[in-house]
Amino acid sequence: xxxxxxxxxTTESMTRTIAAAARAAAAPGTEILAATAxxxxxxxxxxxxxxxxxxxxLEAIREGEQQGCDGYVIACFGDPGLLAxxxxxxxxxxxxAEAAMHAASFxxxxxxxVTTLGRTRIIxxxxxxxxxxxxxxxxxxxxELAVLELDDPASDARRKIVNECRRALDEDGSGAIVxxxxxxxxxxxxxxxxxxxxxxxxxxxxxxxxxxxxxxxIGTSKRGDFAPPLPKFYTGRxxxxxxxxxxxxxxx
Length: 252
What we know:
Blueprint: E1 2-7, H1 12-25, E2 31-36, H2 47-66, E3 71-74, H3 82-88, E4 93-95, H4 96-107, E5 111-115, H5 118-130, E6 137-142, H6 157-172, E7 176-179, H7 188-195, E8 199-201, H8 202-215
Parallel strand pairs: 1-2, 1-3, 3-4, 5-6, 5-7, 7-8
């Protein structure tokens, strides 16, 4: 099985963190293809960043279709471009926020999300409701860490994340923590041991869910809104993004 794990930002060091978490979770025989977006922002910390990042993400999905990938993971907690990606492929596509929240609901009656900046906390709150997780998610908490600070030892990021996790357990009454950034993926196992509750990284969970879905032969429905994009001309700088179904000519 071949799973492509896509970092929709352009920071290679974050891709390495995400790739390590994905490979640690993958079963023997599962090949992880880790990809960094070829274009877009160095970090994704708002609606504008998300919108711009989707182009690089979709390019990576298109390349993955040529690579014979059996599934895709979008390794950004805003799950940018998730529905558009599902239009492009029959393979299962999961975002790490969606995967992590569902996993948390399996193992605790309530969970808290610990994320980066306050502005991304608001985005995560929208996803909580979009995914029907409102009755499970007790609170989304911001550490006010910029995404790129997660890679900077001088930022004291780990201590800030741990302290916010402890406040979540004490103040929210949560039984599990969801880490709200792909750049936190390397912390899940050690924080689980340190805090004594499930601390869930969406990268690893999404890989396992893709393995299950693909292993069962369950792919993305091509009926209704997840049917392939309509072939048509795109103009301007995005002209090469026009969708062409396999084996069919381009739009006239």
